[in-house]
Amino acid sequence: MREGHHVSVVTTSEEVLTACSSTPPDLVVIDLVAPRGQAFEVCRRLKDQPTTRFIPVIIVTSQTDRHDRLAGLHAGADDFLSKPFDTMELHARIQSLVKLKRYTDELESAEAVILGLGATIEARDPTTQGHCERLASYATSLGKSLGLDDTDLGALGRGGFLHDIGKIAVPDAVLLKDGKLDQTEVRVMRAHPVVGDALCAGLRSLNSVRPIVRHHHERLDGSGYPDGLRSGAVPLLAQIVGIVDVYDALTSDRPYHTACPREEAVDVLSKEASKGWRDRALVDAFVGILDPPA
Ligand SMILES: [Fe+2]
User: Fold this and answer.
1) R_g over Cα of the chain
2) In this structure, how many other beta carbons lie within 10 angstroms of the beta carbon of residue 161?
3) Which single residue of 131, 159, 249, 293 could bond 212 by disulfide (Cβ 3.0 to 4.6 Å)?
4) pLDDT tens digits, 148-181
5) What is the pLDDT of residues 18-67, one digit of tens each?
6) How many CA atoms lie within 13 A of 2 on its CB side?
7) What pTM did the predictor assign?
8) Which residues contact 55 (CB under 8 A, 6 or more apart)?
9) Containing H/E element for 26?
């Protein structure tokens, strides 16, 4: 108000959650005069929901109660203020948390732009429709069956979506060509992992996705691209996306071939494992998660 903030005051937990979902504020201040358990629960619910989890929460306590602070930290609170509080201190804390929130907002919108670019690749080529979603879904299912943790599963989901983002630099004449690519066209096409990696490099939040974007066309015998990595040097998540990418490309209609049956695609992957291109255990694990033939 006096400091230029717009302030809304609500009195019940449900009102806080409804207000934060409909018009997300830059900051929430929860006064612990409310029943304590309820105040912490509101904080926890705000931090659990993807749409509200980045809203900073300050909890105001009537005294420096260690128990309250611990409960607040467990609920995900970002800061605490003890009553009676110094208004200058309150203002300073609000300023710093709001500044942090602005950075997060900027990063989130930058990430949304990159994810949107991923979708445009698919939109340019009608024959690849649903490819990114299917890849993200296959890759995370395979990751789950291998017992990978949530961080890796998140990277597989986004990596499935963004793996071909570098194709934004491939002209339609090459991307949509109905026939064999010549040498120059192959070179242009094969640049897409490096271009994609460079695109994602500007965002630290995409760091875990970059190895997938760059290395999903590597082969374990070193005959892949762009870096000709061998065996263990090919990141596991990139190997996973590489396998599901080949499977999905074979089982969908493309400009250069019609969809082949599941068994044929599995056979191709198995042959690639025999040639030393793919990890046999990973290919077997992937075949294990495919639905049995109808
Ligand atoms: Fe690719």
Assistant:
1) 25
2) 23
3) 159
4) 998 999 999 989 888 999 998 888 888 888 888 8
5) 888 888 888 998 887 756 678 888 899 998 887 788 888 988 877 667 78
6) 4
7) 0.69
8) 20, 24, 25, 26, 27, 28, 46, 101
9) none
- Cα of 231 vs centre of ligand 1, distance in Å, is 19
Token pair of 143 as six digits: 């990751």
Residue from 83, 99, 167, 180 carrying the catalytic annotation: 167
**How far is ligand 1, taken at its centre, from the CA of residue 242, in Å?**
8
Q: What is the mean pLDDT of the chain?
A: 86
Per the annotation, the verdict on 167 as an active-site residue is yes
Cβ distance 157 to 142 under 8 Å? no
The answer to whether 69 and 61 are in contact (CB under 8 A) is yes
Burial class (CB in 10 A: 0-12, 13-18, 19+), 44: middle
Q: Report CA(210)–ligand 1 centroid distance (Å).
A: 13
Residue 193 Cα to ligand 1 midpoint, Å, equals: 6
Mean pLDDT (whole number) for 227-235: 95
Which residue do the tokens 């900051």 mark? 27
**What distance in angstroms lies between residue 217's CA and the mean position of ligand 1's atoms?**
6
Residues in the chain: 294
Hey, what amino acid is at 132?
Answer: C
Using 50, 70 and 90 to split pLDDT, how confident is the model at 286?
A: very high
